[in-house]
User: What shape does this take?
Amino acid sequence: MTAKKSAKKLTSGKLPQSKPYEEGKWAAEFTRGKGERRNWLMKSEPDVFSFDDLIAAKNKTTHWDGVRNTGARNFLRDGLKRGDRVFFYHSNAEPSAIVGICEVVKEGYADSSAFDPKSDYYDAASDAAHPTWFMVDVKAIDRLKRPVTLPEIKASVALANMALVRVSRLAVVPVTDTEWDIVVEMSRQG
DNA sequence: GCCAACGTTGGC
DNA sequence: GCCAACGTTGGC
Assistant: This one.
């Protein structure tokens, strides 16, 4: 899949600097107890790659490539672990909504689209020996019984602190266990 | 299509 | 290293 269709021009000549996680805003997302499973949300524009496309893909699995934002990159490289659960979110959609559940089946590895000069996601600064950009493989597990829309999420007091709402423009964001359960419960109730 | 939020770039 | 200009995301 590709995260979105618009071509990117990436001309940075060096690896983006990022602060050590323990100092960063998302520090807690990079540590976990033994055997702990975390939850995430990943955004895709359905016109480009929808949850139906993932269901139709071989093994219901895709490389989640094309993410070109250092915050999201850090999550892909170091945050998402095999077995973590992921909400599949349709962005720029009518309406934007969480539509399905996936599982991480392969942890962060080099995003090869950055190496392909013909790709919209080509980045001359990233090479195989020292990749700048990373991707994971996700597998579709379940479609939600019904989509849980962004307006609903915003209207929910219990979900007011979701990273999805608090920090827009991040293609990969963490989801707490509580938030996960609330969203799933909402999807079960008409 | 507009624009707010915010990340990135580059001049100094 | 600061910060203004610029670019991108994505809701509306």
Summary: Residues 4-19 of chain A have pLDDT under 50 and may be disordered. Residues 11-12, 16, 69-71, 167-169 of chain A lie near DNA strand B (CB under 10 Å from a C1').
